[in-house]
Amino acid sequence: MKLYVALILSVLVSCIAAWVIAARYRTRMKELMRAPRAGLPAVSVVDAVEDAPPADRVSLADNRAAGMRLGALLVVVSLLISASSAWLWSTLSFPEDPLRPKQIAVLALLHSWPVVPALALMWRWSRLRLFGTLLLWCAVTFCIFLWRQVELNPTQALLALVLEMGLPLVLVSLVFLGNAARAVAPWLVVPVAALMWASLASIDLLMYFFARESPWLLSILHWLSGFFGTNVVWVAMAIAAILPWIILWWPARLFGRALGRAYFRKWFSDLLVVFTGVWALSLADRAVTTAMQAGTAALALFLPLLWIPVATWLMSLRRARLTRPPTLLVLRVFQQDKQAQKLFDQVVERWRLSGNTLTIAGTDLADRTLGADDVFLFLDGKLTERFVAEPVDIARRIATFDMRPDIDGRYRVNECYCHDTTWKEALQALVRRSDVALMDLRGFQARNAGCAYELGVLAQGSRALRVVLLVDGRTDRKEAEKVVATRKSERFVWLEADKMNAVKFRETLGALFS
Fold first, then answer.
1. Torsion of Cα atoms, 203 then 206 then 208 then 209, to 10°
2. What is the pTM of this model?
3. What's the whole-number mean pLDDT along residues 210-230?
4. How many CB atoms lie within 10 A of CB 110?
5. How far separated are the first and last CA of the chain, in Å rounded?
6. What's the CATH code, domain 47-58+322-513?
7. What are phi and psi of 219, to 5 degrees?
8. Which residue, among 371, 367, 405, 406, has the nearest Cα to 386 in the 3D structure?
9. Domain ranges in the chain?
10. Rounded CA gap, 350 and 506, in Å?
11. Model confidence pLDDT, tens digit, residues 293-309
12. pLDDT in tens, 50-99
C-alpha cells in the first residue's frame, strides 16, 4: 500500500508543481517582454543575419510518410514492450508454472493499451477522440479475452481490464492531458518520486527506532514535547517526512540541470519523454503490484523500456538526411490563446516532421514549446538570459537555434524571446532565415498595429518567401490587403478559415508544402 501511496503522491505533487511553475513562467514572461530597455540604437543591426541558403524540397507526401514511419515505430515499440512485460510478469508471478505462449500473447494484448494514449499525445488528439478510441480498444480486447481465456467469465474479464488500466490511466491523464502538466510535469516526476521515496523511508526508519524505544529518539521526543505537547509523535513524523526534502533538494536540482543539458544535447526528445512516461506509469503500477510477491525483482518489469532507445536509434540510422530542411515562421494575433494553441497542435506539430519552426516567444504557446532546458533555466532564475536585450544580440541568439532533427526525426521549435523594444528587429532577422511563413490573421483589425507591421515585413522580404495567411469573418481583410497591395502580393496565399476542422487543417498544411 505504501508503494501505491508513493506513486500517486509523486504524480500529484509533480502536477501541482507543474501548474504553479507554468503560471509563474507566463507571468515572468509578460514582465520581461514589457521591460523597458534604455539606450537602444536607433538603427537596426539585423544585417549581421544572413539570408538562409535554399532549402531542400519536401512535399506533403514526404511529411505524411514521415508521420506514418514515426507512428509505426511507436506501435512496434509498444508491442515489444507489452510482450516483454507480459513474459516478465508471468515469470515473476508464476515462477513454478509460467503461462503458456498463447496466454502470454493474450496478456500482452491486455498490456498494450498505452499505445493508444501514446499515439493520441503524439498527434494531439482531443480528449473525446482519445477516450473514444480507448473504449473501442477495450471492447475488442474484452471480446478477445473471453475468446482465448475460457476459464474467465465476463465479469472477471471486465475486472481484469479495470485493474490493468484504471489507476495508470488516471495517472497518465493527470500528467499528460493538461497543457501545463504535459509541458512541465514529465521533467519533475523522477526527482519528485525520489524525494517521496526518501520521505517514506525516513518515516519507516523513525518507526523502526520508535518500536525499539531507542534512547536517543526518546530524548528527542521528550525535548519536542516541551514545544508541541501530546502531538509530539505526529510532529516527529512530519519532521522525518520533510527532512529528506531539505537534504536532497540540492542533489535534485543538480539532477534537473543535468536533465536540461541532456535534452539540449538531443539525448532524447519531448515526444520520447511523453511516450516513455506513458509506458513507465503503466509499468510502475504493475511493478508495485508484483513487488508484493516478488520483492525487488519486480523492478525487472521496467526493463522493457530499453526497447525505446534501441528501436529509435536503429530507425535513426535508416532515416534520410536533409542538407537543409525547410524552415517555417509562425506569426499570429496575440491574446487569442486557444486559437493559436489549436493551430499549433494540428499544423505546426505535423510540420515538425519535415522542418524547423521559428517564432517569437509568447505566453500563448508557452505550454507547447517548453523543454527541459527552459523549465530548469527558469527555476534557476535565469530566464532573462534568453531575451534579446538589444538588436546587436539578435545574430548571436539566432546562431544558437537548434536546427538539427531529434533522434525521433522531428525538429524543434526555436523561439526568439524579445522585449517590446527588440521584437521588430528580431522579426526581420527571422524572416531572412525562413522559407515559408504561416500567419494567423483570424480576428485581425486595424488596431493590431503589430500584425500590420509583421505583414509589411513579410511583404518586403528579399528572399523567395511564401506566406500562408489564415483569415475569417472577423478579419479586416481590406486593411490587411492594403498593407501588402503595393509590394510582393503574389507571395501571399489567403485561406478562408472561419471553421477550422480537420479538412481545413490539412489544407493549411498542404499550402505550406505547396
1. 180
2. 0.90
3. 77
4. 20
5. 57
6. 3.40.50
7. -65, -45
8. 371
9. 47-58+322-513, 74-316
10. 10
11. 888 889 999 999 999 99
12. 677 778 889 999 999 999 999 999 999 999 999 999 999 988 888 877 77
